[in-house]
């Protein structure tokens, strides 16, 4: 899935990815940027997480991944 967004490449941005069950929501700078519902998101043996970037490149800083309390 993809969602078109306009990004100023001259400044840093905050991205948040939230996964609950079979749904994923993406926010960019505090604003909704994309949503996806797929059974593959909630796959019982999912073991990896990765970023896919289209274009010239990207810099990541302060990446944090955690599981929310249930």
What is the overall pLDDT average?
85
Low-confidence stretches: none
Q: Which structural class matches the secondary elements?
A: mainly beta
Head-to-tail CA distance between termini: 27 Å
The main β sheet shows up as: 3 strands, antiparallel
Q: How many β-strands, per DSSP? A: 3
* Strand residues, percent: 25-35%
Gross morphology is globular
Tally of helical segments: 0
Strands side by side in the biggest sheet: 1-2-3
Report the helical percentage: under 10%
Rg estimate, integer Å: 13 Å
Order of helix and strand elements from N to C terminus:
EEE
Describe the structure.
With 70 residues, the chain is mainly β. Helices cover 0% and strands 27% of the residues. The chain has no helices and three strands. The chain has strands at residues 15-20, 23-28, 31-37. A three-stranded antiparallel sheet has the order 1-2-3, with no helix packed on it. The radius of gyration is 13 Å and the shape is globular. The model has no long low-confidence stretch (mean pLDDT 85).
């Amino acid at each position: 899935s993809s969602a078109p967004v306009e990004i100023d490449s001259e400044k840093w941005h905050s991205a948040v990815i939230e996964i609950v069950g079979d749904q994923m929501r993406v926010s960019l700078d505090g604003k909704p940027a994309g949503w996806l519902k797929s059974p593959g998101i909630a796959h019982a043996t999912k073991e990896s997480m990765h970023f896919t970037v289209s274009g010239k490149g990207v810099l990541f800083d302060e990446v944090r991944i955690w599981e929310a309390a249930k």
